[in-house]
Amino acid sequence: MINRTLLRIKLMQATFALYESETDTMKQLGKEPTDVAPRQQTRLVQTAQNILGEGFKKTHELYCCLLSLIPEITRYAQEKIENGRNKFLPSEEELHPNTRFADNLLAAQLADNEALHKLRETLKLHIDWTEHADVIRNLYADITQQAFYADYMQSDDCGYDYDKMLWRKIVTNVFTNNEALADIIEEDNLYYASDVELVCSFIVKTIKHFDANAGQEQPLLPLFDDLKDEQMAMDQMKDIISRWSTYQQLIDQHTKNWDLERITLMDRLIMHCALAEICSVPTIPVSVTINEYVDIAKAYSSDKSGKFVNAVLDQTAQELIREKKIIKAVVLR
């Protein structure tokens, strides 16, 4: 589930969190020779890896939390229909409601999904949707106002695939934009805003993989497709901190002609992460690393950060290649 793009974002976030909590020590670590003792450097590495691991856990929790909304919203729709029928003087529409949404086959399968139930127990989610009826009600109202919902309810086409298609649209268009949902999750997950679109894309992928014949045994996406990716991330986190002064010198060397006061902390941290990948992961082409971190700079730093980060990383990488300090399968441009 966690792809290389999200992995890079998590590395950047963990680096930022460590720097914020250990600012003075990290500044000392950037000097050569450093005044930071080896034991303290080891502590910084362990702290950074713990922060990174917690970030991965939060991503998994968000995946589980948002996926759990599907049966919960459907349950609310079912209760709403039943309450209408039980009124003292129900309307014709309440007596004969359109139950297509409430009878959605994908939602019913997910409600009984063994993997989701097990995941909720394992992660011990802090959010229990049964305690947030107002959020469920708000999401349902948002869904029913969508044009694609009206088309679904009125369409002659029906079946499992159409039910899956509806929820893919809901996850993409409603879950990513609903303020009530964002407010409640951000109380528990500081990275919700940066993670939600990617995590929703994972949920859409999960729904696409659902098979009616699998029933309640339908598997969900694992946190990592390959456990080697998690270890690679931890190794990169260690490299970022262990070689902090080396990367700091490279950044300083290639920013001499820039106004240092205008270089943001986030730009510097992003370049540390990028240089660690360039220097420690030989299987990823330099151009891929630079392009990915330029996109991160554009998204998480200032408007001009993309151009700046690209220029500095480009110059630094070319120098490292010329000096044969790195060997890549694909040489930058």
Question: How is this structure best described in words?
Answer:
- Helix 1 (4-21) crosses helix 14 (265-280), helix 9 packs antiparallel against helix 11 (192-209) and helix 15 packs antiparallel against helix 16 (305-322).
- The two termini are 30 Å apart.
- The protein is mainly α and 333 residues long.
- The protein is built from 16 helices and no strands.
Strand content: under 5%
| Rg over CA atoms | 24 Å
Q: Structural class of the secondary structure composition?
A: mainly alpha
Helix count from the secondary structure assignment: 16
The helix fraction, in percent, is: 55-70%
Overall body shape: elongated
Give the tally of β-strands.
0
Arithmetic mean of pLDDT: 92
User: Spans of 5+ residues with little confidence (pLDDT < 50)?
Assistant: none
Can you summarize the main beta sheet?
A: none
Instruction: Write the H/E string, N to C.
Output: HHHHHHHHHHHHHHHH
Brief write-up:
The chain is an all-alpha fold and 333 residues long. 69% of the residues lie in helices and 0% in strands.
